[in-house]
């Protein structure tokens, strides 16, 4: 009898089946892990907006970054369709065991990873999410109980006032600071060893170590043996730390809360004082036992936690304006509990018999102790994840896949502040962020990791199956209400802080977009953007941070400068581009901002490639004086090929902007129409910074062409391409539709007339690009028409209309379109501009793309390439 051949499914069907299956352990296994040690960190967000995730077991060891707009796209459960997951292969190869800690540094470019064996590594993020480098590695040979970064930067913070509403100040660095380098962290192992690792120079690190007071040791001469080796040798009877957490208080003191699973249920609090080494002494760590919190007789709502079968599952220290907070979660197979305590001063009576009769009465001692705030129980649900914001608000993830978060008391931040009972939440001071999630098989998917966006307006979480989700935490507003104005004011303050602290603001931009989509609020994004840009330019020009107050009526007028620093104005461009990129009705503003930002970057490329003296370059670029007598400039021969293609891009841009200008002024219009009411890209010639940058680039193109055709130089690389280079420059200069000299004369005449237009009706330099309209100023507008009419014979020739401009991704190096399937094409997370690198061994890296900043190796808007 013949057997019927089996039908083998196609590889596509196999792959699809594997991806849809939820790989996770049952809840009993998850509960056992929580009772045994502090939960692993599965997701972490950086100040630059990059999310790094590591799915829990039983998934294979992996570490990847999720780079996309996770907030504006309003994604549902799971990563959005446009999200790009890039694995961090170096870290996956470095760690052979499950990762227990994933934490970003304050600067957002250094990532710390630690596995369950105690192996720690620091990874530095380069220009894109695909390029990482190992900065430091160390093997502690013991599992980590806690990992904590030490601060290295001074941050701007806002402070409420009675007269001005809000004042911004730059505070000192909180806590101890590494005097030798930028990076420093504190690691606490499961056996009570506290070590400080700090950067001395580059990849050179040093460390010093101590031991917690209440940790017993046996056979201390075997300190070089790891915990697994001691277990095999029968020496593992140490008092093991199962849970630990560290945090700074308002005074900058570092505190450590620990819990020993082998001892009675008691949380110990230590104050850690760090002294970094100097020339004459070594580093030192002083661990002072401050107080302890025993659960032998817990408060009434938490009475069952005294039972041995209800272990501690989470310990979390946080800080709010009133002091240090301790969050503790308990759980068993049926019920979980959560309690919150505050560290505050108290008095303690010492009986007189303790002093053998030397004191006649009791002595009062000043000390600090934990004060219980609230506690509650949850039936048939387990607390599987917990995380706190910078203001002390806690978010709890449950075993049914739901997330609940505390209300904030007051209206100081953007989180929800209505302290009303949420019937679907777990307690009266909590509200439900997300609902529970069930898989196709009907089983709940627990939350195993929680993180917050850079400005804490959104929550990013990971489920046990490896799925990623985001949810908004901001207040739901009512139309035309008083709370709307308060929320808008808080949003503007948060945007100013993000720009001052050079922090990613995509989560805040999503809030601006959400407000603009509401009824009768279409003009709200423009108002918020202009207010933030005006305050930022006032601060940059006058170096007074108090000009960033929320009262915009008192904001001084901005001062125009011919040499505005790109480091100061670059983040303002990035913020405005991020807003108008996501508004379909603002395509003109988005195009104007992107074109205006490319010009100063190209000018930097020309200046960086020039080898002449600084005085000669400054004389050549003084385009407003009209002095034509200047010496010829010289350039680096190895950068000439890059400058050829940059020059072609600039000449195409000049053709396009002249066409837009002449269409606006020289085309036929209906009778009685006003050209100042029409949106046009011609405002780029009226924008002062863009006009001056274009004039200087055209001068540099003239100098570059003269040097290439007449100069004496030798190319050490690609020597055989010198004749081809000269031919390309000749063709480029011969195919210009309007001579560069004529364009410069027209722009100089326009500069004298449009100079009065720059300061009329605008409170920041980008307002005219955003509005995309010429102001209706009679004398100035008549002057622009007269200049256009005078130079119509030279700058309005028909040849500039032959090519139809169309916005599409173009590689300015290879002078061709970039296909979306092109390999090694990277997109900026904020402005979605493309960056395609060339061969770094041949071409100058500073000329890869007009969107590539040579100083920070990032997009000039501040985003990361992904």
From TrEMBL:
Localization: Nucleus
Chain positions of WD repeats: 92-127
SUPFAM superfamilies linked: DPP6 N-terminal domain-like
Highest taxon above the source species: Eukaryota
Principal localisation: nucleus
Alphabetized Gene3D superfamilies for the sequence: YVTN repeat-like/Quinoprotein amine dehydrogenase
A GO term from the CC aspect: mediator complex
Domain (Mediator complex subunit Med16 N-terminal): residue spans on this chain: 183-413
Mediator complex subunit 16 C-terminal domain residues: 803-865
Record keywords: Activator, Nucleus, Transcription, Transcription regulation, WD repeat
GO process annotations (BP): positive regulation of DNA-templated transcription
Any single Pfam family the record assigns to this protein: Med16_C
Family matches, as PANTHER family: MEDIATOR OF RNA POLYMERASE II TRANSCRIPTION SUBUNIT 16 (PTHR13224:SF6), THYROID HORMONE RECEPTOR-ASSOCIATED PROTEIN-RELATED (PTHR13224)
Assembly information from the UniProt record: Component of the Mediator complex.
Family listed: Belongs to the Mediator complex subunit 16 family.
UniProt function note: Component of the Mediator complex, a coactivator involved in the regulated transcription of nearly all RNA polymerase II-dependent genes. Mediator functions as a bridge to convey information from gene-specific regulatory proteins to the basal RNA polymerase II transcription machinery. Mediator is recruited to promoters by direct interactions with regulatory proteins and serves as a scaffold for the assembly of a functional preinitiation complex with RNA polymerase II and the general transcription factors.
UniProt name for this protein: Mediator of RNA polymerase II transcription subunit 16
Lineage: Eukaryota, Fungi, Fungi incertae sedis, Mucoromycota, Mucoromycotina
Name of encoding gene: MED16
